[in-house]
Amino acid sequence: MDHRRLALTLGPAALALLLLVGALGDSAAVPGLGARTWYPPWDLAAGAPSWLVTGLSALAWLAAAAAVRSGLRADPSSLPSARTMLIAGMLAAAALTLVPPAGSADHLSYVAYGRIAAAGDDAYAVPPADWRGGLDPVAGAVQPPWQHTPSVYGPLATGAFAVVARLGHGSLRLTVWLWSLVCALAFAAVAVLVHRTAGDEAARRRAAVLWTVNPLLLGQLVLGAHLDVLAVAVALGGLLLAARAPAPAGMLLGAATAIKAPYALFGLAVLWALRRRSPDQLWRAVTGGLFGAALVLVPAHALAGPHVLDQLRTASGFTSIASPWRALVNLLELGLGAGAMRPAVVPAALVVAVIVTWVLAPGLIGGGSGPRTEQQDAATAALLLTVAWTFCAPYALPWYDAMVWAPLALVVGTGSLSWQAISGLQLTVLARSTVLALAYVPGRVVGLSPTVETITLGLRRYVAPVLVLSAVLAALRWARSPARQRPRVP
After folding, report:
1. Mean pLDDT by 10 residues, the chain (490 residues)
2. Is residue 379 a part of any domain in this protein?
């Protein structure tokens, strides 16, 4: 089988299908942006039925997964040069900003919170539907079921939304386009970081397959315009800077945490990487990093106001439909009563994540054929922690996997683990991301025909949780396989 040809054919085909979904305009996959304008994003306002955009989206994700798998199996020397793939990835990201975001309506919530904050009001206390009577052209566009939910995002995320909203001057289409550009730039920044830190040409090509030209990520993060891509770009920058500049690295890691709280895991990965330093060096590095993080986190939360953590505490008890936790919680609450398990969900998930971390650690931290640099150690630890958390978290959405794909590409690029040693984990991550992408087509809870709603919700409720759990078990099996247990050469 010619894996190179498959990758080079299916990848562009997947992106073309995703572009078509966005270009069709307002549908079950694409929230409408109002009257068309001369500036992007452009769409045909075709009024596509839900079955069409659902089918196109599903085909796109399947083609994307097959393209990545073929790229992973192809001989790196047969793939285009790393520079060519870097340019291709950036052009693809730019093209995806020319059509309306697809796959969810999260971007409308982002710009709504930004619009409220830019006006000087508290996005953590005022729901979009209540702000200015729900009649504002930007804040009033939030989709069900989030119209009555204040911001659940970190203070720097809301600050970024506010800057974009201010530049959008009350135009929903312009504000959304500006946010899409931010997401595309963040995606490109990760691609450049991964490219520049990779060890050689073969490693750069392999890393590019995992991030830069990965149509799954381009579709979820750029076309989907999700905040996670900004968080991962900032976190990755902090991780790569930590070995030589602890304070600036701490600022970046603090900023990533102030965008989305789970990105604090990258800070833990950096602490692990510093463990071999002398006590004096370790003390200076840790205190410098913590000072840098505090320099960002403290004023950001202080300026955001007293309600900045309210919705985060509320959301911490949620379970997504495609997560195995939802089935467990529903079963237990039959006897305990509705909502009884909500306070226990995150603690239980953390316990399971710690166990998974312990099982995976020999295969990742203990893997490899020689000593690692601090940068390689940090990348490997970040991969370990993010896999354990995302695989075990009670709230799982496809774009959340960005925090796994970035350190995975970094580990492969820097040679922290051999390509062969980590191949099983790569395929497990790919399978999980594909299952979640398929589970959430077309992406909205409005505009679905009864048949499409039955099929998509059935997949999300009954099939996806089993497959997501299977991915966890597959990762554990990979870690405990004899090939992963060989001791490292000192």
Report:
1. 91 98 96 93 95 97 98 94 98 98 96 96 93 92 90 95 96 98 98 94 96 98 98 97 94 97 96 92 94 96 88 76 87 75 86 94 73 89 96 94 97 82 91 97 90 93 93 90 45
2. yes
Alpha-carbon span 413 to 409, nearest angstrom: 6
Tell me, yes or no, whether 490 lies in a domain.
no
Structure-block tokens of residue 159: 């600050």
Q: How far apart are CA 155 and CA 385, in angstroms?
A: 24
Place of tokens 């994307």: 64
Provide the domain limits for residue 325: 3-104+178-485
In a domain, 265, yes or no: yes
